[in-house]
C-alpha cells in the first residue's frame, strides 16, 4: 500500500504579490510540486487553480501561511484565506514568519515595499523599516518559484487555531497611546 506524502497548501501575501503553492514533504524534505504564477489574478482564483476539485482538496493535509511582516493588505488577505480554507477542509493550520523564511529562501538582503515612503529591509540580522530610497532591491516574483514556499514550510511553527499577524512597526498614531 502506498502512503501519500503530506501535501500542504502554502500562502503568503507579505510581498505585495502572493505566493500560492502546494508543497509535499518527501523523506522529510519540502518539495514544491505546484505553484500558481498568475500574479495578476485574485488570490482565491489562484488557489482554485491549484486545488480545482474535491480530489485535490482531499489530498491536502495542511495549510501554512506567512504571517508577515510585510504588505499590510497582503498579509491580512492571505491569512484570512488560510484560516477559512483550513476551517472549511478541517486541516491543521500553521503559521510562518515571512521575513525569516523569505530571507532563508533568498540568502540575500532584500526589501518589501510598505507604501510609497517606506520599505521593510530584511537581512540576516532581522527586519527594520527604512526610507524607500535607501532600501535594497525588492524580493522578485521570480525568486518565489517554489523556493520561498519550501522555506515557509521549514520555518512554520506548531498547529495554530488562528494566525497572529506580525507588523513591521506600530500603526501610525499608536505611538501616543
Structural class by sheet pairing and helices: alpha+beta
What is the H/E string? EEEHHEHEHEEEHE
- Work out the strand percent: 25-35%
Helix content: 25-40%
Write the CATH fold name. Answer: Nucleotidyltransferase, domain 5
For the termini, the CA-CA separation is 61 Å
Mean pLDDT across residues: 88
| Structural shape | globular
Name the strands of the widest sheet in spatial order.
3-2-1-4-5-9
Which CATH architecture would you pick?
2-Layer Sandwich
Number of strands: 9
Given the structure, what is the number of helices?
A: 5
Q: Number of domains in the coordinates?
A: 1
CATH class: Alpha Beta
Please name the fourth-level CATH homologous superfamily.
ATPase, nucleotide binding domain
Radius of gyration: 16 Å
Low-confidence stretches: none
What about the largest sheet? 6 strands, mixed
Index terms:
alpha+beta; 9 strands; six-stranded mixed sheet; 177 residues
Descriptive overview:
- The protein has five helices and nine strands.
- The protein has 177 residues and is of the alpha+beta class.
- It has one domain (7-106, 141-164): ATPase, nucleotide binding domain (Nucleotidyltransferase, domain 5).
- The strands form two sheets. The protein has a six-stranded mixed sheet with strand order 3-2-1-4-5-9, with helices on both faces.
- α4 packs across α5.
- It starts with 6 loop residues before the first strand and ends in a 17-residue tail after the last strand.
- The mean pLDDT is 88.
